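SUBJECT: protein chain
CONTENTS: sequence, structure tokens:
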Amino acid sequence: MLLIKLSDNNYNGYKLSLTEYSKEEKETIRNALDSINNISLSELEERGAIIFPSKTVRKDLDDKKRSILSVQHLTTDTPTITTRNVMGFFSVKGVQFEISSRFDSGEKQFFLHYMLSKVCNVAPTIELTHANKDPLYDFAVYLFPAFLKKAVSLGLFRMYITREYNDSNLRGVIDFPRHFRNNIPFNGKIAYRTREYSSDNFVTQLVRHTIEFIAENSSLRKILSLDDETRGAVQEICGNTGSYDRLSRNFIINKNLRPLSHPYYTEYEQLRKLCIMILTHDKVSYGESQQNQINGILFDGASLWEDYLNAAMQEQIGDKFELEHPNNRTGQGKKWLFEKEAGGKSAAIYPDFILKEKDSNKITAIMDAKYKHLEGATVQREDYFQLLAYMFRFNSNRGMLIYPYGKNEKEPESKLFLKDHENKVTLSVLGLEIPQECGSFSDFIKQMEEIESNFAKQIAKTEIL
């Protein structure tokens, strides 16, 4: 299968050279690019891709501007591909696409792995097991505990299934052909079928097979016991799938190839796709099952960066401060900009982070996370205005815009003072430098932890310097 490698946030456009491909290969690549040109995240999900964060994050998925890429000059031998905040690994119409983080180089995906380890609470000391071979498999296994916990939190998936019995406790419809075949001459038993609403079904069996598959790998099984919630979810699945049979794995996979459409168990659809991806990786990698399907995993870089910062700063912020993280995607921690004259509230807002002193509950800073590329080390006017509005609303004199940047990028201007306010209102543009020349994942982790520690000390300063 043809492979196209890209990086995220390439606003200037990547010129893809097709001169070395055959006529048929060129046509295949053009068809694939045309099918995903300006496609939104929600459309990608409908066509089979797994989106992280998951389907419940409606705001990001429904935004038609949140596409993975756009293509210009498609009919030429050098189409120009502009990528945005979306990273991932997927295939469509005979072409595999890899969109890596712009902070990862070559075959290494250290930064994306590290962010996921923080967001999904996977111990970052787990070394990459299939690195450089099948990156999709690595990320699918990483995400399994998070998707499992979210699905099981809704309750075990239950459905009506037909079971066959042959005993003396008749409680269903008699299966005469099977009864005559097994119980004649009469031996006191009756063959019958019954419909039961059970948690031991094809879906939970698929999850059980995935758990057992991961448990067989000595370097991966530790993700099944990351925390009490993960262990509880694993135990609940295993305790309710008594009919599990390792030899039936292919049969169970085939029974789960159709999408789930249950209105309550929505998270099980994402988990179903992830389980099939893990169980079939050796056979199909991330090739599509149907010509119009897109099989793979995609990550919203802006959401992942924001959730990573929350996890990292919560670990490093210390005992004197409290970090609140309102989430516009889930509606958690909603704030209001206005109060109406007749009562009530208006204009919901979601500052990314609110830093408070624990003892006094005083707000010391408002922070906004931005994953997008900082063009020319300058900040867009709209970003300034949004942060200043939040600072004014919460009566805070300190605002911070937090960007990632690489070694070859210029660090953003670090401090600005609001004019005519006697240097009492400051807006800091803080760059978090991402290491890009690490020989191993362990070295990358060590450098990132040091960077996070220094960064936490920087934002915890209460005075305006």
Observations:
- The chain has 14 helices and 19 strands.
- The CA atoms of residues 296 and 330 lie 24 Å apart.
- Residues 441-459 form the longest helix (19 residues).
